[in-house]
């Protein structure tokens, strides 16, 4: 995983628009966090909003994700939006992505039942039609 993240950092570093510079900064932060952990668990969620063109719905979900970030087992988190990249292999049909890093799988499992997480689902699930989740370990 470290080598994959390193390659990602290098590829971003060679094409530096303001968005890509921010992506490089985020990638570096995540790489540092992963390196510090023994068995990191990455939880990446893609939200597909019911009303993808609604700035209000997007802002409301971001507000909820910022509340969700207060779960104690989350080591790092990042809220993102589809980048303005244009290559055939890139998926950008989602509205908002949420990536968070845990020390290990056990802490991610604690997050799943944390009252803050359960309240987030209860309060904000009306905003999305679909959620796709990609979990990965080293």
Automatic annotation (TrEMBL):
Domain spans labelled Stress-response A/B barrel: 41-136
InterPro entries: Dabb, Dimeric_a/b-barrel
Gene3D superfamilies tied to this protein: 3.30.70.100
Name of the protein: Stress protein
């Amino acid at each position: 995983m470290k080598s994959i993240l390193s390659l990602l950092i290098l590829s971003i570093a060679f094409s530096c628009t303001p968005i890509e510079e921010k992506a490089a900064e985020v990638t570096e932060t995540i790489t540092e966090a992963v390196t510090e952990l023994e068995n990191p668990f990455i939880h990446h969620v893609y939200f597909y909003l019911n009303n993808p063109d609604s700035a209000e719905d997007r802002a409301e979900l971001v507000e909820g994700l910022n509340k969700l970030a207060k779960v104690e087992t989350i080591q790092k988190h990042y809220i993102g939006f589809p980048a303005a990249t244009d290559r055939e292999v890139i998926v950008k049909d989602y509205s908002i992505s949420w990536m968070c890093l845990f020390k290990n799988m056990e802490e991610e499992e604690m997050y799943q039942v944390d009252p803050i997480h359960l309240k987030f689902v209860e309060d904000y699930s009306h905003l999305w039609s679909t959620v796709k989740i990609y979990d990965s370990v080293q």
